[in-house]
Design a protein that fits this description.
The protein is an all-alpha fold. The chain has eight helices and no strands.
């Protein structure tokens, strides 16, 4: 009798469950379909553009190309820059630049999806200007390192980038 009561109680509890109980939105990441709903969403995306746009390594690398900096730790790789032997194959030279350019392009491609009722035009234009500046700054740094570099004015897929 006790076993039957538990089975019936279990069946009643299972009937009360929502079918979409396990279909929750992720809280640790965004997607294009859910991100561009409000001004705060656009602000979070713009923060992603700023993330890593200028790392401390990038600043030190450029100083090592001049006589302004010296590093006593050879394992950090700065002597490559101090000797003028830096190439695109050296780690840290252009990884952050192109990642930041891609994030800025992605932001600029998608920020207009925010409804006009959620964000005023002045704020949207300011955010676009910030993303364009960061992208231009990264191209400026790449130009200083290598001269002419490929210019991407929109977010590229993996196939297009290769």
């Amino acid at each position: 009798m006790k076993k039957t009561a538990f089975i019936i109680l279990g069946l009643i509890l299972l009937q009360g469950c929502r079918k979409d109980f396990l279909d929750t939105k992720p809280r640790d990441s965004y997607s294009n379909s859910t991100l561009w709903a409000s001004s705060s969403d656009a602000g979070a995306a713009l923060s992603g553009v700023y993330n890593g746009w200028e790392t401390s390594d990038n600043v030190v690398y450029r100083d090592c190309m001049t006589d302004n900096a010296f590093n006593q730790f050879p394992w950090e790789g700065y002597e490559t820059f101090a000797s003028g032997l830096a190439t695109a194959a050296n780690p840290g030279v252009n990884y952050y630049n192109y990642g930041t350019i891609q994030r800025a392009n992605w932001f600029l491609d998608n920020v207009d999806k925010v409804p006009a009722s959620a964000m005023d035009n002045d704020t949207k234009n300011r955010m676009k200007g910030e993303a364009r500046f960061i992208r231009a700054y990264q191209y400026f740094i790449l130009y200083q390192h290598y001269g002419d570099v490929p210019l991407a004015e929109r977010a590229l897929t993996t196939e297009e980038a290769n």
